[in-house]
Design a protein that fits this description.
heterodimer, A: 670 residues, mainly alpha, two-stranded antiparallel sheet, 69% helix, globular, B: 221 residues, 80% helix
């Protein structure tokens, strides 16, 4: 019943999209589309939550659609219910935000039809239970999000982003197609139940895992397949960016989990190592890229890459533990990964929506032209600050809990019997610690440069607080970030059906029975975390410090310079900039990873030209990985270009020659 | 199938291969058309004989189509086209006859080598017929590749199609609907090609493919 109702609701979303094609120019259409999306997502969220919390058994449904001999299979189980919660929570909040934000859209006819279709596509991917339906709705999701990326297609950067996105999406779907082909085997059992029953041979399973990693990883933004993500996500309108970054990447992770944990059987130990290594590299590279960015939305998109790396570290650990039958540790790693999926969808949506609010208020995404917004948009600034603290993994917020759980799983790794894993896991742990610290640096930069100081441009000085709908969306997410941080036990408990399903019914012990809401992931290891206590301690010490300072310092007379009200040098250009904030990191890491070069041009005395500091960064992944492929394709196609201008007789000769050659081959081969 | 019936079927199918060889070295357009008519006549006889031997009556219709359209209507039409184009006196320079003949022999050998091992399950006549049919198809392609005149290309295409019909007739016949539609598509192809020949002629004063190539737009090397 909930399954057919969910499918019906996605059809409602599609119908709203169709309606928007006709009516997008009319007044009130924006409100209607986002209002219906909000309502549908709320109902879907409620149903998915009910399914997850009641730990209901899976329900299936076969519709006579799609391939005639296969039909369209749908299934609602704990895993898809959890991801439905993530998707529809994100969709609900983004729709709420868009009720206010969408009024500023210049080309609503390019956004409104595709927005509900995109939501429907993501929901359907989670419900699909056969390879054909899965790939079909996966492509549907990719295409509708592509249309949203191209919403402002007149900007040349967006057109390039859209093209790159399309190419990478095609590659990803091709990899998934091959994965399912391998899994289904020669008899073509394409529904997931048949794939589950027929365990693939080790060779085919290994190949399928690698392909699934490429296919789902390219959508999720795993290095080195991430190149499209930081271009495409920021190109869409902000509420869509929030959905793409916060939610669609999770759908991709769902695809990987579904294939690696559910459909494939009998993992080999080094699968976990592979996923771990990729996750570690992704984490550090993502955050380093983000540090070099001064475009707020692109910075956030690179942070998505980083967080996907963290999620994959958790998943890799879970795979490694599962191969060694250490199911308790695997449950811990899986819980960490799933928790981080949930958390990232919260705070990444929050940060993108906050950026959207800044964008409508000031028209600027470039941090170097923002500043001082905390005085003009105090509520947005507060919500953004909570999101920034959460993504930087600061207690008592939710980001800390999932990263802490990941570290707990890493600390259990010495029990692994394989020596390569014994060495690899601590190294990945070090990368994770590094990236957590760098992420904090990055968000000090993002918040400090954008919201503190003084406005760096007239546009920033003219910003006004955003509307009520947007603020409601922002604070809903901020509250959830805080709640998930101080009540992690509840989240862990609601995740346990998913963990049990993926982990041979081994799960973490129930946390709700622990005193004082303490999180005790592994009973015999005495490491615990209590968000509530941390919150109380921080509140108490913060208030006490503030009172003390006010009591002793505020009353004392201060002396300052006589002019400019104690604030000399009026130009806002003298403030610390994003570039100056990133400079130490750029010198330490960027000179190695990005071959960063700085050139200072100081005009000689008497020369009236301005002094310049030029920074040059190179993208190693693009230059080593993609540029050669692009060059090879161009060279090959220009070589074959001559074939377009042959004479008719040459064409005939080519066909004839090919035919004779093939026949000869047939004769000789047998 | 036994004795004489088999021999006659074999003879007629072999006759088509020989006719294809005849097509290869004709340098006069009229003679080329005549030999094509002979080619089609042999096809009609071969298919007719198959119909009689197999007792498949719809193959008589196939044979009739081959006789009426391919042995009479198309050659007459091509005759008229050649006369109206005023190229009936032109000799086509057929270079390397010996080379083409050797290549053709090789193709026949190839066709037999390909077909006989594949069709071990079929009866002897169908096997031989298929081998000959493939040879006729390959020889038609060879004709199209080696000739420069557009009319010769048309003849090559039609003889190739004859090979396909022979194959279909040998393999216990294809459904009549397919047969008729193929026949009509060939007729329509003839009409289209004829119209194109005149248009090309108007435009370029020649139906030699080499001269046409120099007129192609956007040529880059």
């Amino acid at each position: 019943m909930p399954l057919s109702l969910s499918l019906g609701l996605t059809m409602v979303l599609l119908a709203v999209g169709l309606h928007a094609i006709a009516a997008s120019r009319r007044a009130g259409c924006t409100r209607r589309v986002y209002g219906v999306s909000l309502a549908v997502c709320s109902v879907l969220l409620g149903m998915a939550l009910a399914h997850l919390l009641s730990a209901a058994s899976p329900t299936t449904l076969v519709l006579p659609l799609g391939l005639p001999w296969l039909g369209a299979h749908f299934r609602l189980d704990a895993l898809s219910a959890f991801f439905l919660v993530v998707v529809n929570l994100g969709g609900m909040v983004a729709s709420l935000f868009a009720l206010g934000y969408g009024q500023h859209e210049q080309a609503p006819e390019r956004v409104l039809p595709f927005y509900p279709a995109f939501l429907a596509g993501m929901n359907l991917v989670l419900l699909a239970d056969d390879a054909f339906t899965f790939l079909f709705v996966w492509e549907f999701m990719s295409l509708s999000s592509w249309a949203l990326v191209m919403a402002h297609h007149r900007e040349p950067a967006n057109a390039r982003a859209g093209y790159l996105y399309l190419v990478m999406a095609c590659f990803g779907t091709l990899a998934l197609l091959l994965t399912f082909g391998l899994l289904a085997g020669p008899n073509g059992g394409y529904d997931f139940a048949a794939i589950r029953a027929a365990r693939a041979t080790p060779g085919a399973a290994t190949l399928a895992l690698a392909l699934a990693l490429a296919g789902a990883g390219s959508k999720a933004g795993l290095v080195p397949l991430h190149v499209w993500l930081p271009l495409a996500h920021p190109a869409a309108p902000s509420h869509v960016s929030a959905l793409m970054s916060g939610v669609m990447t999770k759908v991709a992770v769902y695809g990987f989990i579904r294939i690696a944990f559910d459909l494939l059987g009998g993992p080999a130990w080094w699968w976990g190592g592979l996923v771990l290594a990729l996750g570690g590299i992704t984490t550090v590279l993502g955050v380093l890229y983000a540090l070099m960015q001064h475009d707020l939305k692109r910075l956030l998109a690179y942070h998505t890459v980083e967080n996907i790396g963290i999620i994959f570290i958790g998943l890799g650990l879970a795979l490694a533990f599962q191969t060694n039958h250490m199911y308790a540790n695997a449950a811990l790693a899986l819980t960490a990964a799933l928790f981080h999926i949930f958390n990232h969808s919260l705070f990444k949506s929050l940060l993108f929506l906050g950026t959207g609010a800044v964008l409508t208020a000031s028209g600027e995404r470039d941090m170097e032209r923002l500043g001082g917004l905390i005085h003009l948009m105090p509520w947005t600034a507060l919500a953004f600050l909570i999101g920034a603290a959460a993504i930087s993994a600061l207690p008592p917020l939710n980001g800390f809990v999932s990263e802490w759980l990941t570290f707990q799983a890493i600390l259990a790794s010495p029990e692994l019997p394989q020596w390569p894993l014994k060495f690899l896991v601590p190294a990945v742990g070090a990368l994770l610690a590094l990236s957590a610290a760098l992420a904090a640096t990055c968000f000090v930069k993002a918040f400090g440069i954008t919201f503190l100081g003084r406005p760096r441009s007239p546009a920033a000085a003219g910003a006004r607080e955003t509307d009520g709908y947007s603020l409601a969306a922002l604070f809903a997410l901020a509250t959830l970030c805080l709640l998930a941080g101080i009540l992690p036990g509840l989240v862990v408990d609601s995740l346990s059906p998913v963990v049990g399903m993926l982990n041979g019914s081994t799960r973490l012990t129930a946390q709700s029975s622990q005193p004082w809401l303490t999180l005790v992931p592994v009973v015999d290891v005495k490491s615990t975390y209590n968000g509530l206590l941390v919150l109380l301690f921080m509140a108490f010490s913060g208030i006490a410090a503030a009172l003390l300072i006010h009591r002793f310092a505020s009353t004392v007379a201060r002396r300052g310079p006589a002019w400019d009200c104690g604030f000399p040098e009026a130009s806002p250009a003298t403030q610390y900039t994003a570039g100056s904030f990133a400079q130490p990191i750029r010198r330490v890491f960027g000179s190695v990873v990005f071959q960063a070069r700085e050139r200072v041009f100081m005009p000689p005395p008497g020369d009236s030209r301005a002094a310049r500091l030029e920074v040059e960064l190179r993208d190693p992944v693009w230059e080593r990985g993609y540029a050669p492929i692009v060059a090879a394709v161009v060279a090959l196609s220009s070589r074959f270009n001559a074939f377009q201008y042959l004479t008719i007789r040459r064409y005939l000769s080519l066909v004839f020659g090919a035919l004779v050659l093939l026949l000869l081959g047939m004769v000789l081969w047998r | 199938m036994h004795g004489l019936a088999f021999d006659i079927a074999h003879f007629l199918a072999g006759g088509m291969v020989v006719a294809s060889f005849l097509l290869l070295y004709q340098d006069r357009l009229y003679t080329l058309i005549h030999v094509f008519a002979l080619h089609s006549l042999v096809l009609a006889l071969a298919v007719g004989w198959q119909a009689a031997v197999q007792g498949a009556h719809h193959l008589y219709i196939t044979a009739g189509i081959a006789l009426v359209f391919k042995a009479i209507v198309i050659p007459v039409a091509l005759h008229r086209i050649v006369r109206q184009l005023g190229i009936h006196r032109t000799l086509e320079t057929v270079r390397g006859v010996g080379r083409d003949m050797l290549a053709g022999t090789g193709l026949v050998a190839l066709a037999i080598l390909v077909m006989l091992p594949v069709t071990t399950a079929a009866d002897a006549l169908a096997r031989e017929d298929l081998a000959f049919a493939l040879a006729v198809v390959l020889l038609g392609l060879l004709l199209m590749v080696t000739r420069r005149n557009a009319v010769s290309l048309v003849i090559g295409f039609m003889s190739l199609e004859n090979g396909l019909v022979l194959a279909a007739a040998g393999a216990r016949g294809m459904p009549l609907a397919v047969e008729i539609s193929v026949a009509f598509s060939v007729l329509i192809a003839l009409i289209v090609i004829g119209i194109f020949l005149f248009r090309i002629r108007e435009r370029f004063d020649s139906v030699d493919m080499e001269t046409m190539d120099t007129f192609r737009e956007g040529r880059r090397r």
